[in-house]
Amino acid sequence: MKKSEIRFSIALDDQKVPEAISWSATDAGPDIHFAKAINIALWDREQVGTMKIDLWTKDMPTDEMKRFCVDNMGSMAENIVSATNDVEMAKKIRALCKELSEYLDQQEQGLS
């Protein structure tokens, strides 16, 4: 059986606020990659529930954080289709993401 590892490294300031997030993966080559935010969700089989890790750096702008959240929701639509073939649920998630993206576009244009 082939194994793959993903490693995250979080640099914290004195108040334990993330200053830098880096990651590497055995399947992504030897390079270290940098991120401003991570969102990891795991389905815990013993607790039968979602365990989450959400971290973002001090320099993550709020507009980018909002886009990051909408992008995450959009990717969940793809997960729903591939994991359950529930096309209707994916359609509803995509519609919400479209609505939120339009809202963010308006915010960025100073219209809301």
Number of strands: 5
Poorly predicted sequence stretches spanning 5 or more consecutive residues: none
Question: Which secondary-structure class do the elements indicate?
Answer: alpha+beta
| pLDDT averaged over residues | 94
C-alpha end-to-end distance:
53 Å
Secondary structure: helix percent = 40-55%
Overall number of structural domains: 2
- Which range does the strand content fall in? 25-35%
Shape descriptor: globular
Order of strands, widest sheet:
1-2-3
Main sheet attributes: strand count, strand direction, barrel closure: 3 strands, antiparallel
Order of helices and strands: EEEEEHH
What Rg, in angstroms, do the CA atoms define? Answer: 17 Å
Count, helices? 2
InterPro entries: Motility-assoc_prot_GldC
Pfam family, one: GldC-like
Protein name: Gliding motility protein GldC
Brief account:
The chain is of the alpha+beta class and 112 residues long. The chain has 2 domains: 1-58, no CATH class; 61-111.
Notes on the structure:
By secondary structure, the chain is of the alpha+beta class. The protein contains two helices and five strands, in the order βββββαα. The chain has two domains: 1-58, no CATH class; 61-111. It is globular. A three-stranded antiparallel beta sheet has the order 1-2-3, with no helix packed on it. It has a two-stranded antiparallel sheet with strand order 4-5. 40% of the residues lie in helices and 30% in strands. The protein has helices spanning 62-84, 87-108, and strands at residues 6-12, 18-25, 33-35, 37-44, 49-56. It comes from Hymenobacter coccineus.
